[in-house]
Write a structure and sequence with these properties.
single chain, about 525 residues, mainly alpha, 22 helices
């Protein structure tokens, strides 16, 4: 454990004050305009591409990525980078095929899409599920792993760090909502990328005996060659986590499509775009940032195998590597880590508030913001924003209380999150893919897929404990898909159940998107060809 010097503390305090002030400034409204649900939950549907791309990464890259994935890099090597690199390809698919439908139908939330596509029962079930997942798995893991990093780097008591992170993230977004989060994320991501590149350089330079990062990388690949295999063989001790070729053609696609395409926490940024073109440019920008992330996150974890081979837990790898930083620079990189934690936590809090308020509370109370009386509509809007803020505060309190009991004994929290989420993602992916691209899919079939996903995942986990969870996801996906199709054909839905229109939807993309997308694909071919 190390402690921050006085200059480091000053850097962190200046960052905290600056980013909090910026969040409040970008959240300000014109005189006489009260913040409504579109402002608070969808940033007034006016986000530019750079804000969308940066916010997608800031929401995604948090302590669970930085600390957790770096820990997995320490334990099993570069193969964990497939989560990042395959996500880049997934983002292209989301931009080309999913966003045109979502934006044409003016979708605000994922449960709203399910209601327009299937009926009223499924979206309520899924809204409750997402709230439970976001609060008890995602939000808890973000602040728990963040508190580990703060404790290891700054020497602050972990419980105190836990409370401070949760409280700051809540206050940061409480007034401005998604606008406060998304429009400050370009600062957060810039700090995260620069800080991550600095620590990657210093670790490699240390390994290379001061001869620079390239020399250090060469030494690292020689010292731990087994940590540079992208596709693991069946006899690899971590094959169960990343089962060989299935990473490229199997269950990882299920996880990625569910996360990047149908996850409120992520897709909310693209739904808040000025228009489809801006949304698509934003996801391409995010795809290129994803290609860069393993350098920032995984590489320091692999370097720790050489520089700190006796760590008690893999998740201590990244905080340990931060000790190489000199005073001042440590404060800057520590601020970058805090930036990632705060941005991701604030995004998660806002998504929890959005789903509860718009998909559960407003519908249960019969509240509509489309009232003919303008004064009544304004009152309803203010009431819903207030409810969203209250829910945000409650979510943080629950997550703070649940973090230690749920994650206190986990060695690799990133893998824990992936496996737990894997119980649900096959069903979610089936429901949305059929909902988007197969008009005969019915609510009965979709509900069957959701139930089968959880039940089969549990049965297979118990019955086949050595079966890789990624392969399990693929198998459950195929069975759930067959079940959903069969029941949809057998049990017809109501004629008016599907209100999703395809009129005016085009999957043609701009030349800019196509050229940039081709660049992503070529880079991926080169990366996997080099490190296969």
């Amino acid at each position: 454990m190390t402690t921050l010097s006085q200059i480091d503390v000053i850097v962190v305090i200046v960052y905290a004050i600056g980013i909090f002030g910026l969040a409040q400034w970008v959240s300000r409204e014109k005189a006489g305009h009260a913040k409504d649900t579109s402002d608070y939950f969808l940033a007034s549907k006016a986000l530019p591409w750079w804000a969308i791309g940066a916010s997608l990464i800031a929401a995604n890259i948090s302590a669970e990525q930085i600390v957790g994935m770096s820990g997995s890099g320490y334990a099993l090597g570069l193969a964990i980078a497939s989560y990042e690199w395959m996500a880049a390809l997934t983002l292209l698919i989301v931009g080309k095929y999913f966003l045109p439908i979502f934006l044409r139908n003016e979708i605000y939330t994922m449960p709203q899409f399910l209601e327009q596509r299937y009926g009223r029962v499924l979206p309520v079930l899924m809204a409750v599920f997402w709230l439970a997942l976001y609060v008890f798995v995602n939000l808890t893991s973000i602040i728990w792993l963040g508190s580990i990093a703060v404790n290891k780097v700054a020497g602050i008591n972990q419980d105190a760090a836990l409370i401070a992170l949760g409280a700051f993230a809540l206050l940061y977004q409480l007034y401005g909502g998604l606008k406060a989060v998304a429009l400050t994320d370009i600062v957060q991501v810039t700090l995260l990328v620069l800080g991550g590149l600095v620590i990657a350089y210093l670790t490699l330079n240390e390994i290379g005996g001061g001869q620079g990062a390239i020399a250090g990388f060469g030494v690292l690949t020689e010292r731990v060659p087994g940590h540079f295999n992208m596709i693991l063989e069946p006899d690899h001790p971590f094959y169960k986590d990343l089962p060989g070729i299935a990473v490229l053609v199997g269950g990882m696609w299920i996880a990625n499509l569910s996360y990047w395409g149908f996850n409120q926490y992520i897709i909310q940024r693209a739904l808040a775009a000025k228009n489809l073109g801006e949304a698509q440019k934003g996801v391409v920008f995010a795809a290129y940032l994803k290609l860069l992330m393993p350098v920032i996150i995984v590489l320091p974890g692999i370097a720790a195998v050489v520089l700190a081979p006796e760590l008690a837990k893999p998740d201590e790898a990244y905080p340990t590597m931060m000790r190489l930083l000199p005073p001042g620079l440590l404060g800057l990189v520590f601020a970058a880590l805090i930036a990632a934690i705060i941005a991701s936590t604030a995004s998660k809090i806002n998504s929890i508030a959005t789903i509860f308020t718009l998909d559960l509370y407003a519908k249960a109370r019969g509240i509509s913001t489309q009232a003919e009386d303008a004064a009544a509509a304004t009152r309803q809007e203010k009431h819903l924003v207030l409810v969203g803020r209250i829910v945000a505060a409650l979510a943080v309190v629950i997550a703070l209380l649940a973090a230690r009991p749920l994650l206190g004994k986990s060695d690799q929290a990133f893998q824990f999150i992936q496996e737990f989420s894997g119980f649900f993602t096959p069903g979610i992916t089936v429901i949305f893919l059929l909902g988007l691209f197969w008009r005969q899919a019915t609510e009965a079939g979709a509900i069957a897929a959701a139930v089968a996903s959880v039940a089969l995942s549990y049965v297979f986990k118990v019955a086949m404990p050595g079966f890789p969870f990624m392969n399990r996801m693929a198998l459950v996906f195929l069975i759930s898909l067959a079940l959903a199709v069969g029941i949809s054909l057998a049990v017809k839905g109501r004629g008016d159940a599907n209100r999703v229109t395809m009129e005016g939807v085009s999957f043609r993309t701009s030349a800019t998107f196509n050229v940039a997308g081709l660049g992503v694909i070529l880079i991926l071919i080169a990366l996997y060809g080099t490190w296969w």
